Amino acid sequence: MPDLEAIYDRHAQAIFAFALSLTRSEAEAKDVLQEIFCRIARRPEILARAREERALLLRMTYHRIVDESRSREARKRRAEAAAPALFAPAPNPDENLFQRELERALDGLPEEQRAVVHLKLWGGLTFDAIAAALGIPPNTAASRYRYGLDKLRASLRPLYEEIQ
Amino acid sequence: MNPDPIDFESQLARRPLRELPPEWRDAVLAQARAAAPQREKAAADWRAWLWPHPWAWAALAAIWLLIAGLNVSGPHGEALYAISPAKGNEAPFSPGQYAAYLRLRNLLLAASLEKPVEPFWPPRHKR
């Protein structure tokens, strides 16, 4: 059996943040995290063959969420539930306000752009790694990022200028 | 005025993401272990069962090794089979010894009952 504890300590935070960013539901993020670890426990060879553990796990996360988001039940649950915070609380109220607006702006992005923006900005991945994680060409990853960032900038410009 | 793209990106990237709830760790890992294949789980269960008394199991293993050692050092293979049939073929008593045993038994029985006892063997018919 793989060392699940070590894998959890290395990657669970990244899986959780990515899942939370895409699903905007803490319960679903937990389900995704749980399922990823159950799959690793059932089929340890999945990770043994991987060159990049993190990229593989994020890819599994993404595919699981995309598959699930197709179901009507998941969409209904998300629409009904209040979206949880994506960022840690900031000490400054202005910063907190900015973060709430950023979360709203991220929610407005199409899922594929949100995934790339999240992995680039908060996952610290290169476009090549994002491409590997999402199963898309690197150019597509770069263009999705550019479009996504443009939309965020447009949404947040007034507030961003105000707090600068 | 448009925000500086690089500055804007770094501003966003600086936002700390929410921490993974620490209390999830045990639950997620326990459920993952439960989902592991049965072979792995059985091995883990055996280990969990054996572990509380390691000295007892070590002693049992030592006894088994001793028995195995004695078994190996004794006669085995052809030698084992060579001895058994020869002994098995031998009758425990000769006919004469057996007749003497029966006579003795009748005498003892008669003495204990204090009355005459019919001979065990029917008298031989004279030809």
What can you tell me about this protein's structure?
The complex is a heterodimer of chains A (164) and B (127). By secondary structure, chain A is mainly α. Chain A contains nine helices and no strands. Chain A folds into two domains: 1-84, Rna Polymerase Sigma Factor, Chain: A, CATH 1.10.1740; 87-164, Orthogonal Bundle (Arc Repressor Mutant, subunit A). Helices cover 77% and strands 0% of the residues of chain A. In chain A, helix 4 crosses helix 8 (127-134). Chain A is globular, with a radius of gyration of 16 Å. With 127 residues, chain B is an all-alpha fold. Chain B is 66% helix and 0% strand. The mean pLDDT of chain B is 76. Chain A binds chain B through residues 1, 4-5, 8, 12-13, 16-17, 20, 30, 33-34, 37-38, 40-42, 84-88, 90, 99, 102, 121-122, 149, 152-153, 157, 160-161, 164, and chain B through 1-3, 5, 8-9, 11-13, 15-20, 24-25, 28-29, 31-33, 35-37, 40, 44.
Question: Pairing-aware structural class of the strands and helices of chain B?
Answer: mainly alpha
Q: What is the C-alpha radius of gyration of chain A, as a whole number of Å?
A: 16 Å
Average pLDDT value of chain B?
Answer: 76
**Low-confidence sequence ranges of chain A:** none
Q: Assign the CATH architecture of the largest domain in chain A.
A: Orthogonal Bundle
Beta percentage of chain B is under 5%
Oligomer type: heterodimer
Shape of chain A: globular
End-to-end C-alpha gap of chain B: 144 Å
List the topology elements.
The complex is a heterodimer of chains A (164) and B (127).
Chain A: H1 4-23, H2 26-42, H3 45-48, H4 53-69, H5 72-80, H6 93-107, H7 111-121, H8 127-134, H9 138-163
Helix pairs in contact in A: 1-2, 1-4, 4-8, 6-9, 7-9, 8-9
Chain B: H1 5-13, H2 24-34, H3 38-50, H4 54-73, H5 78-89, H6 95-113
